[in-house]
Specification:
Mean pLDDT: 82
CATH topology of the largest domain: Rossmann fold
CATH class of the largest domain: Alpha Beta
CATH architecture of the largest domain: 3-Layer(aba) Sandwich
Number of strands: 20
Strand order of the largest sheet: 6-7-8-3-9-10
Structural class: alpha/beta
Helix content: 25-40%
Radius of gyration: 26 Å
Low-confidence stretches: 1-25, 297-323, 329-334, 599-612
Shape: globular
Distance between the termini: 31 Å
CATH superfamily of the largest domain: P-loop containing nucleotide triphosphate hydrolases
């Protein structure tokens, strides 16, 4: 098994015995939380909206239940209703939420405050906004101990340091006195777990606890939560949009759509025999699921031909790690085709009050027409800095970047005007990168006006053609970004980048903030545009699953260095460098957890057109 489950599987339920049947046998585990016919309605200007409708499920002691769904499915609203933390626009929830024999929906706010923290711990989604930036870490964790009077004041510091150490925060004595901004995202998320577990609750609700983290950091955080929940016999309710992650980590999975439960079953059944087309679509559209399936297909193909899938050279010991780095950007099948964008020896050093930090250290890469290069690595690996150097918005300390063999920047380090329109950029957060005052039609039109492309009439016509090409109908053209969904906004950002017909598009985490189904739509859209136009993509991502879905070539960065590079099938199918293998191992693997051989044991019809 390649992953640690979030909690030990619950004992199987058994039929109740009649009075004269005294044979011993397994007993049904105690139910910590029981939700029955939960309903939540929001009031708005356009009328009432039923966000949650007749939702029912149980969370047994010592087990993990995962609620899975896309944005708007009602999964987070259900979690907030349980702890009484709904937005003001929400009407009083209906149904029952039983914690033991207490119905939480009938409690006064004063009584709910006692439940929150003491009996139910809550791990919120965003560690960046969930901690007080003006208060040190230690007092924030100790706040739970103070409110619920768990320990005498003189014992708070020792308990907090113990908690920080248990959740995997390094140097807990030092972290105690630091502010949130001095910690990494993974460390801040661990602090939130420490706060949730401080009062030793019976239930922990984790709402997308790792959605903002890299895959390897996510796995470490979830592993720590798993171990702590198991040690303290805490039940866990995991809220996530990632169905493979839920199947890997949970005992029981509840699938929601449009505020309703469409299917729920044990995790193994959801993986091997999902009953609903929507569940099958979620599985098929998840990049991590596809990556595992494709890797299995490569292994099956290698077995059928009698050849090893391991590209290690003859005589090499496959148990030994490859020399560091394993890097050659020109080894792909398209190496004979000239690179449209090439980098050689890129280096960038940041100097401040402390020691200089080498963010990019001698990076080489080639980006070829009609192909996608994925730049992989954890936060702080140098991915974004490398992208900025390629775009010419950051000056390198050494090295060169060329477009069709010509330097991207002039002698003064400024990007040449002829290059600016040939290399376009799609930001990670489309909402922040689009002018909120403009219609989407004007947003896509603006690059044409700036570069004086064609006549005024032809510019508007080109902008409309591009909007239609990315699947945005005429009824949306007059809307502003705030009136669009996340997927629609990302389509606008892509249309704006492509409207100038560039040679290269750099995409920084283009689908990290989107649901899996919308992710699949955006990635398929990018592929279709590439096939028709021959544009070259550089996708900056920490998600190997996304890279496996779209990339032709892969470059893996660690601490600014290229540790492995080559065609995607080789790097992701049989990685040679230990760090690449670590990244790949962090991708959720429900197959291994449930002993399923992919793809042969996958449910029939998975991902077929009729399910989409």
């Amino acid at each position: 098994m390649s992953a640690i489950q979030l909690a030990a599987p619950a004992a199987p339920a058994t039929e109740s015995l009649s009075a004269d049947e005294s044979a011993p046998g397994p007993t049904r585990p105690e139910t910590v939380l029981s939700v029955r016919d939960l309903g939540v309605t929001y009031s708005g200007r356009s009328g009432a909206v039923d966000a949650v409708r007749s939702v029912s499920f149980d969370v047994p002691a010592g087990s993990t239940v995962a609620i899975v769904g896309e944005s708007g499915s009602g999964k987070s609203t259900s979690a907030h209703a349980i702890v009484g933390a709904l937005a003001r626009a929400a009407r009083r929830p209906t149904g029952q939420v039983l914690l033991g024999d207490r119905d939480l929906l009938t409690l006064r706010e004063r009584d709910l405050r006692d439940v929150r923290g003491r009996h139910i711990g809550f791990v919120p989604q965003d560690p960046g906004s969930s901690l007080n930036p003006t208060t040190r870490i230690g007092p924030q964790v100790a706040e739970v101990l103070r409110i619920h009077r768990v320990l005498p004041k003189e014992q708070w510091r020792g308990r907090v340091i113990e908690l920080l150490e248990r959740v995997g925060v390094d140097r807990p004595e030092q972290r105690y006195g630091q502010y949130p901004h001095e910690l990494s995202g993974g460390q801040r998320q661990r602090v939130l777990i420490a706060i949730a577990l401080a009062a030793r609750p019976r239930l922990v609700i984790a709402d997308e606890p790792t959605s903002a983290l890299d895959a390897t950091v996510s796995r470490r955080v979830l592993d720590h939560l798993a171990a702590l929940a198991h040690e303290d016999e805490v039940a866990t309710l995991l809220i996530t949009h990632d169905l493979p992650l839920a199947i890997e980590r949970a005992d029981h999975v509840v699938v929601m759509r449009g505020g309703r439960v469409v299917e729920q079953a044990d995790a193994g059944t959801i993986l091997t025999a999902p009953a609903e087309p929507y569940t099958r679509t979620l599985l098929a559209n998840t990049p991590s699921f596809q990556l595992r399936t494709h890797a299995a297909e490569r292994r099956v193909g290698a077995d059928a031909t009698g050849r090893s899938a391991d590209p290690a050279p003859s005589g090499a010991n496959p148990a030994e790690p490859a020399p560091e780095p394993v890097s050659d950007p020109t080894t792909s099948d398209s190496a004979a085709e000239p690179a449209v964008l090439a980098a050689r020896g890129l280096t960038r050093v940041f100097r401040g009050r402390g020691e200089p930090v080498t963010a990019v250290d001698g990076v080489d890469l080639d980006l070829r027409p009609g192909r996608t290069l994925a730049l992989l690595g954890e936060s702080g690996s140098g991915k974004t800095t490398t992208a900025r150097l390629l775009l010419g918005v950051e000056r390198s300390d050494s090295g060169t970047v060329t477009l069709d063999g010509e330097p991207v920047t002039d002698a003064r380090g400024r990007i040449r005007p002829a290059v600016r329109r040939q290399i376009q950029y799609v930001h990670q957060n489309p909402f922040a990168s689009l002018d909120p005052r403009w219609s989407i039609e004007r947003i896509v039109h603006e690059p044409l006006r700036t570069h004086r492309e064609g006549t005024p009439a032809s510019r508007w016509e080109r902008a409309r053609e591009m909007l239609a090409a990315v699947g945005l109908g005429e009824e949306l053209w007059g809307r502003r970004p705030a009136e669009l969904s996340g997927g629609q906004r990302q389509r606008v950002a892509i249309a704006r980048a492509l409207v100038l017909r560039p040679r290269v598009v750099v995409l920084d985490e283009p689908v990290s903030a989107l649901d899996v189904t919308v992710q699949a739509q955006i990635l398929d859209l990018l592929h279709d545009i590439q096939v028709s136009s021959g544009v070259a993509y550089l996708i900056v991502t920490h998600d190997l699953a996304v890279a496996g879905h779209v990339a032709d070539d892969v470059v893996v960065l660690r601490d600014g260095l290229v540790v492995e590079a080559g065609d995607a099938a080789s790097v992701l199918g049989a990685p040679r460098h230990p760090f690449t293998r670590e990244l790949l191992a962090a991708v959720p693997d429900p197959f291994a957890v449930h002993g399923v051989d992919a793809p042969g044991a996958l449910p029939a019809g998975l991902g077929t057109e009729q399910d989409r």
